[in-house]
Design a protein that fits this description.
Blueprint lengths: L1 H33 L3 H7 L11 H7 L2 H34 L6 H13 L4 H11 L7 H4 L7 H14 L2 H9 L4 H9 L4 H17 L2 H6 L8 H17 L5 H6 L3 H34 L4
Length: about 290
């Protein structure tokens, strides 16, 4: 029996190792391609081990380092502010929905769920944010639209509160004289670190990778986030590589287009890869418990 179990364990571990390698290969190829000489990429294609090592792509990006560092600052700021505010708002909405003694609990849960299925559309949303709230070309335009509160995260956190916070604990706190807000801050939130870390990681990734809101609501280049700036640089490179007139021909010929694309992707994804291990220990528990239907 033990031998059969051990053989099955070896098979499962081997399969998981293969899946891991398959998942990691594109990322490794991305990083190594960013350090590969441009001519080598054109001649031999992308390779895991660079035939000719080159830092030309990063040198090209470094020439615009001032703008990139400024964009990094904006992205870090909107990520921190948006994630913190988003977590607090989501928890404030999810907690009452998890309480069975809340009046009209089912109606408000259905109301939140309805927003997961339908929305106003891009044009009405754009008009509301630009003409009613006047958010165009402000940092709030990168924080508020569509990302500050997500109905899916509300339902995920509501389920976690419903299944993981014992009603007896809340009742005991009430008997001891604690009010609702004190119960929420001093008891519910400390017991909900896994779901807070899980939703916080999702929110962080959303804000860090968001380029759409910047493209729609921001035209001032001083407010470009990192993703918007990298997208702008990529479009400029594509324009230079496709142009065939005047002095731009020599400039486009000296621009490492393929390796720069990879280097831009590495710069964009690297901070998230560094941050992920700090959330990982909470991630699995928060996601699995919060996903249980209730």
């Amino acid at each position: 029996m033990k031998q059969k179990y051990r053989a099955w364990q070896i098979i499962v571990n081997t399969m998981m190792l293969m899946v891991t390698i398959i998942c990691l290969l594109p990322l490794i190829l991305l990083v190594t391609s960013s350090f590969t000489d441009e001519e080598t990429i054109y001649r031999n294609g992308y390779a895991i081990i660079p035939e000719k090592f080159s830092l030309a792509a990063y040198q090209f990006i470094w020439n615009d380092s001032e703008r990139i560092l400024h964009a990094y600052g904006i992205t870090v700021a909107i990520t921190l502010i948006g994630t913190t505010c988003g977590l607090f708002i989501i928890a404030l909405l999810a907690y009452p929905l998890s309480r069975r003694d809340m009046p009209s609990n089912g109606f408000w849960s259905l109301f939140v769920f309805f927003t997961m299925l339908f929305n106003g559309g891009l044009v009405p949303t754009y008009m509301v944010y630009t003409q009613l709230f006047d958010l165009k070309n402000t940092l709030m335009a990168l924080i508020i639209p569509s990302l500050l509160m997500n109905a899916f995260f509300v339902m995920l956190m509501r389920t976690f509160f419903l299944t993981s916070i014992p009603a007896a604990v809340i009742e005991s706190a009430k008997i001891d004289g604690a009010g609702e807000f004190r119960i929420f801050v001093r008891i519910v939130l400390p017991l909900s670190l896994p779901i807070l870390a899980t939703v916080g990681l999702f929110q962080t990734i959303h804000y860090w990778n968001d380029w759409f809101n910047g493209m729609v609501y921001v035209t001032d280049d001083k407010l470009y986030s990192l993703q918007n700036l990298l997208n702008r640089i990529l479009l400029d490179i594509q324009f230079l590589s496709s142009s065939n007139f005047g002095s731009q021909t020599e400039l486009s010929a000296n621009t490492p287009t393929e390796s720069v694309r990879m280097a831009l992707a590495v710069i964009g994804v690297l901070p998230i890869l560094i941050a992920y291990p700090f959330f990982q220990k909470f991630f699995v528990k928060g996601l699995t418990v919060g996903a249980v239907k209730g």
